[in-house]
Amino acid sequence: MAPYYPPSYPGSSLPVVFYVPYTVQWSTPPPWAIPSPAPSLALKLPSAPAPRIIPLVGATEDPSHGEPAPAPKLSAPLTPAPRRLTNVDPVIAYTRNPTYSIDLVWDLMQDPRTLLSTRGTLSSCAVISWGDLTLRCAARVDGKPLRSLVLVFRYLPLQIEIKPWRPSGARDTPQGDAACVSVWDVLNGLYDGLRGPVDPTMVSSMPQCGSERPEDVLYRAAKRRLALLPDDRRPGEPLIRKVDFLRGRRRFLGIRVAERDEVPKGRRLGEVFVVEVGNSQS
């Protein structure tokens, strides 16, 4: 742009300067207008794979072939093993409803044979003879009579195994269950098992009752038992017996199937039954 000097205005000693713009044309593009060259190394991206068509579950046609697709194979649902049904004979079955109870009147320190010979019955509301007890199976699992069972007491280290016993001249049951554990086997085996001696390890496993030692508690229970049954003391037999673990709860209320957490170690679920007891009258 060249300066232009016009004549001075009147009264002014300085010239007035004006700038007249004009356009400059370049014969070649300016450096900044030249595009930069493309890189010599070009990256080749992989082409996207063709979409895979997956038929929906339950579709009747395969879109890739136009033919019916095979039905999907579904695995069979896992069903839990059915719970085995155990039925205990009503004569010895424990029930919380007294309406359906046979109401056995039996103190576990008394011999059931003595009660049957003197009273003729073990129940105050039903006539139950010795012959009836030997013909009735104590328990059945899925309809099959048990050949043996184990009796336990809650919170006590007592286990009594019951097996069938048949006196001479005893008849078989109508179902032919000669080898099943009968109601009489349970009553007689429970009484004989509770008369057994006490192992020292059983005493040490008992929790301490306040300030008293377990040995003192069992000794006092044995002295009370002998006061009620003076003939129960025989020379050579130990003073303390397993029935003394029950102390004042010796009334037989029945047996029930043991739960999983009540089954002793080494025993199977279904062969163990819990003996329920109540307060004795004496």
Could you name the ranges where pLDDT drops below 50 across 5 or more consecutive residues?
39-45, 56-63
- Portion of residues in beta strands equals 5-15%
Order of secondary-structure elements: EEEHHEEEEHHHEE
Strand order of the largest sheet: 7-6-9-8
Radius of gyration over alpha carbons? 50 Å
Supply the number of helical segments.
Answer: 5
Termini distance?
136 Å
- Average pLDDT score: 75
Note the main sheet: 4 strands, mixed
Total number of beta strands: 9
**Could you estimate the helical fraction of the residues in percent?**
10-25%
Structural class: alpha+beta
Shape: globular
Q: How does this model look, in words?
A:
Helices cover 16% and strands 12% of the residues. It has five helices and nine strands; from the N terminus they run E-E-E-H-H-E-E-E-E-H-H-H-E-E. The chain has helices at residues 112-118, 130-135, 183-194, 200-204, 214-228, and strands spanning 3-4, 18-19, 86-88, 139-141, 144-145, 149-152, 159-162, 251-257, 272-278. Strands 7-6-9-8 form a four-stranded mixed sheet, covered by helices on one side. A three-stranded antiparallel sheet has the order 3-4-5, with no helix packed on it. Strands 1-2 form a two-stranded antiparallel sheet. A hairpin with a 2-residue loop joins strand 4 and strand 5 (144-145). It is globular. The chain starts with a strand and ends with a strand. The model is unreliable at 39-45 and 56-63 (pLDDT under 50).
